[in-house]
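haha ok so turns out i had the wrong file open the whole time. this is the CORRECT one, sorry everyone. sequence first:
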Amino acid sequence: MFDRPDSGDNALLVHIDIAQWRNAAARSGHGPVEHATDIDDERAEFIELARSAGLNVMDVVVGSRSKPSARHFIGSGKIEEIKLLLAEHEPDVVLFGQTLSPSQERNLESEFKVRVLDRNSLILDIFAQRARTFEGKLQVELAQLVHLSTRLVRGWTHLERQKGGIGLRGPGETQLETDRRLLNERVRVLKKRLAKVRQQREQGRSKRGKSGISTVALVGYTNAGKSTLFNRLTEETVYAADQLFATLDPTLRRLDLPGGVSAVLADTVGFIRDLPHELVDAFRSTLTETLEADLLLHIVDDSDPEREQRRDDVDKVLLGIGADKVPQLMVFNKIDLSGHAVRTERSENNMTQAVWLSAATGEGVDELITAIGDRLSVQRTSGWLLVDPSQGRLRAQLYAASAVLEEVTQEDGSVSLLLDIDTTEFARIAREHQLTDESIVPDSRPLAVSHRG
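then structure:
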């Protein structure tokens, strides 16, 4: 056995193109058949992830395989190549750009005699470095424990060789069982605490809804310039840097719009391709700010040659968390690097669809503020809505939003509610209860059994 260091600043990177995986992605419509540029982009992003974690990249090993080796992920030839580089550079850790199974990590560590981590572990480490708020730290710890739960065996390989049976059962099994029990107990505690935090967040959103304040959420690929734009719009000093995942914890600030109208602007964590599932689950409460928003500002790095792929990656994450139906305003940032001019793009009904700007210089920011104001301009939805007896929660939400002017009870037990509600607020409620545009009937008084209001 070797002594694995708790941390290391020097890293050897390994990025292998697996044809089997990429062909499967192409057949499912989630990846290109021609992928030379795409794989180069993935490698460049992997290197940037390592540097964002504060690692010194000693060397990068590349290669390709038709499918991964079940035992080592890579072949024997590549193992020997890496061993030569390990002897030359003596790194503290070997990082793989793909997801490794626990057994593959263990087998590779046995071969290399240094710590081996995969891409998911790297992202989790970055998130752990960047978490600042109580909620963020809880979410990171939960994600790390979920990831660790399948890798407990790594620290006890020297005990696993002992055979089981009466009189022969070694301490390895006992220690693993103890670790699993403690880990599961900690996971339960974290989930309970996060549930309380989510409840507090929900109360805050409910208060904003009752006050009629709209929420605008910044979304986009990591390092697209969201935090820089957030600072420019709110005159705040939220941490922003030219690195992946510079912002982790959600930040809410007031945004003043033309006409004396205000909104809440939310800066959220940047997205990335193939975001680990445990991170999406652990940060669901953070991403709820996106799900519950009235408008999404989808920030795209206009100078990035892969901007369309980045845009698709973000849309996939939004689809995964159920925020794909929230209205979007496209914001193409960094025109100071792309060379494009400030401009806006409008739809056939004269609604602003996209704005080109530079958050760094401030060019085009005024046009964006005007566009946000136009998209959030107060529009009211009014008319009668028929609510079945089984839709008690819908009725309660409408009353909580102070949207009910009158209630009429029908003979079958259903009620007709005369509503006057902000259009964006009703759209949010309608999405939750799967109401259609035809659900609201213009004000024509129905026959009533009894009235309230």
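Confidence is low (pLDDT under 50) at residues 1-6, 30-37, 154-170, 446-453.
again sry for the mixup
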